[in-house]
């Protein structure tokens, strides 16, 4: 939910001079398109709307990870407080006949 409407902010992400990184970026974009995490911008919409940076960084395990930097977009979102319960706090709230479930999405 937006606190305010983000401005039209079109940006062109600089491409790396390293062909390996460019190839990795193209693979990341193809994968994100395949899983419908991103979608192509139609010609009539290009240059309009709010754009975020996408880049790749090395993983500690040796591969590469695509990063979609949403930091600038977060400025326009409503802040919602979220408390992460600990296992200890959950165990203290259990009583006989109370059931819990966990769903991993």
Written description of the protein model:
The chain has 105 residues and is α+β, with helices and mostly antiparallel strands. The protein has one domain (19-92). Helices cover 26% and strands 11% of the residues. The protein has helices spanning 19-34, 71-74, 87-93, and strands at 53-58, 64-69. Strands 1-2 form a two-stranded antiparallel ribbon. The longest helix is centred in the first third of the chain and has 16 residues, at 19-34.
Helix content: 25-40%
Number of domain modules: 1
List the helices and strands in order.
HEEHH
Counted beta strands: 2
Tally of alpha and pi helices: 3
Question: In this structure, how is the largest beta sheet organized?
Answer: 2 strands, antiparallel
Q: Which strand order does the major sheet show? A: 1-2
Strand composition percent: 5-15%
Quaternary status:
single chain
Global shape: extended
**What is Rg?**
20 Å
Q: Class by helix and strand content?
A: alpha+beta
Uncertain spans, ≥5 residues at pLDDT below 50?
none
Would you tell me the overall average pLDDT?
A: 88
Distance between the termini: 21 Å
Protein name: Reverse transcriptase domain-containing protein
InterPro entries: DNA/RNA_pol_sf, Rev_trsase/Diguanyl_cyclase
Organism: Micrurus lemniscatus lemniscatus
């Amino acid at each position: 939910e937006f606190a305010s409407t983000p401005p039209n902010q079109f940006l062109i992400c600089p491409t790396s001079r390293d062909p390996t990184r460019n190839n990795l970026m193209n693979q990341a974009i193809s994968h994100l398109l395949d899983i419908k995490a991103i979608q192509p911008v139609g010609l009539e919409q290009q240059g309009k709307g709010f754009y975020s940076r996408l880049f790749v960084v090395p993983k500690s395990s040796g591969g590469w990870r695509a990063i979609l930097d949403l930091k600038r977009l977060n400025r326009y979102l409503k802040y919602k407080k979220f408390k992460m319960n600990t296992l200890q706090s959950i165990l203290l709230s259990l009583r006989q006949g109370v059931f819990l479930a966990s769903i991993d999405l």
